[in-house]
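LAB NOTEBOOK - FOLDING QUEUE
OPERATOR: T.R.
BATCH SIZE: 2
PURPOSE: Compare the predicted structure-token outputs for two unrelated chains run back to back under identical settings.
PRIORITY: normal
REVIEWER: second-year student, initials M.K.

ITEM 1
FIELD SEQUENCE / FIELD STRUCTURE:
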Amino acid sequence: MASPIVSNFYLATGEESTALHESTAFVQIISFPNSHSWIWIGDQSGAQQNLALALGPPKCHGGNNVMSSHILNSSNPDEASIHAKGFAERISKKLGGKPVYLTCNLNNTVN
């Protein structure tokens, strides 16, 4: 089994030379070759309060329909959960239906 590819980075608004502040978004992507991708977007707290799953049929089956669902926070989805679900759908579609797990937890000050 091939090892996963792990990428970590952050996105900051304003000057890059300033120290990390609350408008910084941290991103971690773990991509398992020929399998699925795990994407976490959040702030310094490292919270994971929601999780969405999106996947579609393989390219060989044609079709471009991507299904998605809330996994965590499914009974009372907040705005972040709803956006995470839609974002996971778009990423899965770009990856040809590859399953995508996505969690997005940013405070209100991040633009």
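ITEM 2
FIELD SEQUENCE / FIELD STRUCTURE:
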Amino acid sequence: MNQHDAERERTTVIDDNIGDYTKPQLFFRLAIAYADSSHQIVRSMLAGDLPQTFAHAQTTHFLFDHAVELFLKGAILKLTGKIENTHHLQPLFGRYRKLYPKKAFEFIIRIAETVKANPQSPHSEFPRYPMDTEGNVWEGYNAYTLETWLAETEHLRQDLERLIPEIDPLPPPAISE
């Protein structure tokens, strides 16, 4: 067997070393994965590897918002010991800022715009579904600028990379070959 065949035959297993994580860290590791996935989809659309469709952009939007939600919940959980039972980003962000008021815990992303409640495109519904809970097609949100989303997804990744170690640093993932 030559080296190329050996590489093709090799299987990489990523172990879920969940016992190595605190509860806030479990939220943080998923927040990172959602942020990375959001960024990768935008990059892939701009590179022509994925179709530049509204549905793909909408998926990126969901992954981005969910990364923010999971990060905020993990940060809140770290200081309060309680899991916030909401998907609404504005109250989660308000709670986060009360718990982490120092400038060091501010975001690079346009957080005020990200968390602002908008009844025409609710955070937990618009990016996930083609219509609202009453069966009406969403109105008022009809375009994504991919270059803007690329910058914002990169900023979110930078925010998580900077903030998580300040709150509850993650252990390295367990990888076995």
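REVIEWER COMMENT (ITEM 2): Helices lie at 3-9, 23-47, 54-80, 89-99, 111-115, 146-167.
FOLLOW-UP: none requested
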